[in-house]
Specification:
Layout (H helix, E strand, L loop, with lengths): L1 H18 L1 H4 L7 H11 L9 H9 L1 H7 L3 H11 L5 E5 L18 E6 L5 H14 L5 E6 L8
Parallel strand pairs: 2-3
Antiparallel strand pairs: 1-2
Length: about 150
C-alpha cells in the first residue's frame, strides 16, 4: 500500500492537470496569459489596454472575425470588439462592376469612411486607425472621422 500511495502522490497532480485541461483553453475560464496565447494562435490581435473580459470575447469571436475579414460587417465587428462602448459606424461606397461582354470594367478605388460619434483622445484615434488597417482589404483606402469636442462659446 505504501508503494501505491507513493505513486498516487506523484500521479494525482498530473491527473488533475489533465482533467482540467479543457478549461485551461476555454476563453471563459483561461487565465490572462493563456488568453494572449490563444489570440496569437488564432491570429487575432488584442490591444494590451483591453480588459480581460474584452480579450475573452475577442478570442471567442475569432472564427467570425476571420470569416468576415475584409468586409464592412467584419470591420464593424472588429471595431466593436476592440473598442466596446465607443459608438462607431462604417459607410461603404460599394461599387461592384461587371460587364456583359468580356471587356473588363474599370473599377474605382475601394474606399470607406469610419465615423466615431463621440470625441475621443488622439491615442484612441491612433488605436482605432491601427485596428482599421489590420481589418480592411489591402487595396482599400479609408477616412476616419471623429466628432470634434464641443467648445463653450460665450
Amino acid at each position: 500500500m505504501r508503494f501505491v500511495g507513493a505513486l498516487e502522490r506523484v500521479l494525482d497532480p498530473i491527473a488533475a492537470v489533465l482533467d482540467g485541461l479543457p478549461e485551461q483553453f476555454s476563453p471563459d475560464y483561461a487565465p490572462r496569459p493563456t488568453i494572449d496565447l490563444l489570440s496569437a494562435w488564432l491570429g487575432v490581435e488584442i490591444d494590451e489596454a483591453q480588459a480581460l473580459d474584452a480579450r475573452r470575447e475577442t478570442v471567442r469571436m475569432a472564427a467570425e472575425l476571420g470569416r468576415r475579414r475584409g468586409t464592412v460587417r467584419g470591420l464593424e465587428l472588429a471595431l466593436a470588439l476592440s473598442f466596446p462602448g465607443i459608438p462607431m459606424r462604417v459607410e461603404d461606397g460599394g461599387g461592384v462592376r461587371w460587364s456583359v461582354d468580356d471587356a473588363p470594367e474599370p473599377a474605382e478605388t475601394a474606399r470607406f469612411v469610419v465615423y466615431v460619434d463621440v470625441p475621443i483622445p488622439q491615442e484612441r484615434q491612433a488605436a482605432i486607425a491601427r485596428c482599421i488597417e489590420r481589418s480592411k482589404p489591402v487595396q482599400a483606402s479609408y477616412r476616419l472621422r471623429v466628432k470634434a469636442p464641443e467648445t463653450d462659446a460665450e
